[in-house]
Specification:
Layout lengths: L6 H14 L14 H6 L21 E2 L17 E7 L4 H18 L5 E9 L8 H10 L5 E6 L9 H6 L6 E5 L5 E5 L4 H12 L1
Parallel strand pairs: 2-3, 3-4
Antiparallel strand pairs: 1-4, 2-5, 5-6
């Protein structure tokens, strides 16, 4: 994962993040080292990869707004702001705050060519409830006109979903915002919906 080397752009993102109530971007000492090395040295926060290049997702189940099978790629979304929302069907916080935020954001930006939006069910527990079928059910329940995916762990053993490993998520709900250059600008459990929408309007007009 590459750390951005454009100091001016990092500082601009940092200022925007602070205005939105986001955690500030890290700006020191991590270039050229691996995520594993940084974690061992306690240079990274407990969760997330804010300030790093967003890794590609390895998910083979995606549906579009009509429920038809589809595809999604982080690399193919370069040049756009990308919002990823990680959830589980049985997650109380997802229904209390996660989905309402995703719904409000999607209503504002789902048809904006400068924005890509995807919901991902990252299943690390409750495998009988957090199913592929639940993805479509939730898409319909919250009237989400966006791509949605299913990234399951292993109910027979222990395999953390790929998305959780690559993005070092803290569970669900989890929100990830990636800038047009492919750098993670924000990742956390919650965000102010109004500030997120206001920020995005400032970026895309």
């Amino acid at each position: 994962m590459k750390y951005p080397d454009n100091v001016e752009r990092r500082n601009a993102l940092k200022k925007s993040a602070q205005m939105m109530g986001f955690a500030a971007l890290t700006t020191t000492g991590l270039q050229g080292t691996s995520i594993a090395d940084e974690s061992a040295d306690n240079k990274l926060p407990k969760y997330g990869i804010q300030g790093y290049e967003a890794p590609e997702l390895d998910i083979d189940y995606w549906i579009d707004a009509d429920g038809d099978r589809s595809k999604f790629s982080i690399m193919d979304s370069r040049g756009k702001w990308v919002l990823l929302k990680c959830f589980q069907n049985w997650c109380p916080g997802c229904h209390a705050s996660g989905f309402p935020t995703l719904q409000a954001f999607a209503n504002e930006f789902h048809d904006n060519p400068k924005v890509a939006i995807a919901g991902i069910q990252t299943v690390f527990e409750g495998f009988s409830t957090n199913t592929q079928d639940a993805v479509r059910e939730l898409q319909l329940e919250y009237e989400l006109p966006i791509l949605m995916g299913h990234d399951a762990g292993d109910p027979e053993g222990f395999r953390t979903p790929d998305t959780m490993l690559k993005y070092r998520t803290g569970g669900t709900p989890w929100i990830i915002l990636i800038d047009p250059e492919g750098i993670v600008a924000f990742n956390d459990f919650q965000v102010s919906t109004s500030k997120l929408i206001e920020f995005m309007h400032e970026q895309v007009g």
